[in-house]
Amino acid sequence: MPKLKNPESLALEAPLELALRPRRLRSGAALRESVAETYLRPDHFIAPFFLMAGQGQEPIAALPGVQRYGLEAFLRAAEGTLKLGVRSLLLFGVLPEEAKDPLGRSSADPLGPVPRAIREVRRAFGNEVVIYTDVCLCAHTSHGHCGLLKETPRGLMIDNDRSLPQLAAMALTHAEAGADFVAPSDMMDGRVGYLRRALDQAGFTEVGILSYAVKYASAFYGPFREAAKSAPSFGDRASYQMDPRNAREALREAALDEAEGADMLMVKPALAYLDILARLRPQTRLPLVAYNVSGEYAMLKAAARAGALDEARAVRETLLAIRRAGADLIISYHAQEALAQGWI
Ligand code: PBG
Fold this sequence. Notes:
This protein is an alpha/beta fold.
């Protein structure tokens, strides 16, 4: 046994004169509750849903606990979600290969899974529900890119400006079906202004735009692309989604979308970009939305299933962190389970 230092020899001779003691505010649960700076309510969440043609539901291997829904199954799931106090739904369409073409024309099909779901969920729940729809071509194009392609002397490139009319057709189809907000996630330049004009010209001045203003080219979308069958068939999305190394660029994207008429701004993904949320917060007066994306969800689920952490606490801490960083609303696959289980 080595010789241990004796703390008695280090004991204070006089009481410590410590006027400032932060621990006083943590001394009991009721007190901690009363001074908590951040909190979560059910209506802080936007719940994502994957809609497919047909009936029934299919599990998504990469996203345990998340399903693709046919119409009837979706309506039941939406009802369950509303009962938990979540009022906002974000709808994504999942199309079979045979519905896809190079121009993504099925994105404007009024009988597609998303327009149908909008009409039915509105019929069932009226204005209790706030309906957001993802507006992007990747689930509708045969090549899986978010915009259309063109041949150029430099090779095949994204045709930014020619993609905008198809995105506008998609947004109008959703507005006609009864969406409250369209959420363009394609990252083409000028799309927010283009959609705003198209909506206004068609008389949909009340339909809002939640812009995926700050959307990074992220590895954390992997499970979503399986869920939505929307992975690019070649190349990547780096020519339109943002470089993870950049922060000033995020402020620029956000400012542009605000100037073009966005009603809310999104940062996506959430967890690796909490600094971006925090920097954007004082730069805009618009509501900020954070997307806690599929890979973030899958990562936490896998860790919980491996017994590496306590899922309830980890989910709560994660969602609180996103709010603390500056998000008003959170899009998260955790929302329903976290509320139903009383994790938050
Ligand atoms: C469509 C879109 C994507 C996500 C939302 N909208 C995928 C992508 O950009 O490749 C990802 C959401 C998630 O990972 O949960 N462009």
